[in-house]
Amino acid sequence: MSTWWQDARTILVLFLAGTVSLYAISVVLLGPMTEEQRADLTLPYTLDRAQRLGSALVSFKEQHVIRTLVLHALVCLYLQAYAIPGTGVANILGGALFGGVLGYILCIVYTVIGSTILYYISELFGRRIANRLLGKRLTDFRQWLHDNSDHLLVHTISTRMFPFCPNWFINVASGQLRIPLRVFVPGVAAGLTPYTFIGVQAGTILSELNSLNDAMKPHITWSLVAVALIGFLAPYLLKRWEKSMSTCLPEKPQDPATRSL
Fold first, then answer.
1. pLDDT per position in the chain (261 positions), as tens?
2. Nearest to 190 by CA among 222, 160, 221
């Protein structure tokens, strides 16, 4: 068996263990749920289903706050750690269950922790399979790191705000290339703030939405535009500032012995 298949088998075992554990814990946590509430526990692939799911969980939370908090945390971590689509829905439910402020704080914390778990899965168990399946993209990402090493945190935040490559790939590649956690963690928190904020904001008015566009109120839209522009312009402005500073610095005095030659 080839070595990259050994990595794939290890990751598959981790995924299955996480899936089974999440299912078992969910069954326990949702034990007190009524039959009426269980009827609305469906995959929220439409807005109507998302509203019914949110209504059922909000009703359940009124009597079981801790159970709801733990379940939401585990689902968010599971989705992030295994790069499974659905974090946007988890953010919406976070806003519906816990409000705008607390919902945002919880969701961004879960995003950071889940992304860090994926970082370590990639670093510890995924080197050979990543090189096998993502070799060219990893090479390009390594070159990008080299070209932007002066202000890596700012560039990382900008890249996550403008997802030219998927967020899951940045997490995997960061583990492969061992980007320092002091750069990785704030990069995730700041770079994914706009998307998390939009989802949580939509959740706070989930029952009133006719479409997800209703969550984008004018002041929210302009705030996100401002954040995006800052993220886009920051690397350019930093380079300009460094260049101007280098031209303003006085030249080192020439050594007298050298001057006489």
1. 457 888 889 999 999 999 999 999 999 999 999 888 888 887 666 667 778 888 889 999 999 999 999 999 999 999 999 999 888 889 989 999 999 899 999 999 999 999 999 999 999 998 888 888 888 888 888 888 888 777 788 778 878 876 567 889 999 999 999 999 999 999 999 889 888 988 898 888 776 665 555 555 565 556 656 655 665 566 566 566 555 655 554 555 555 554 444
2. 160
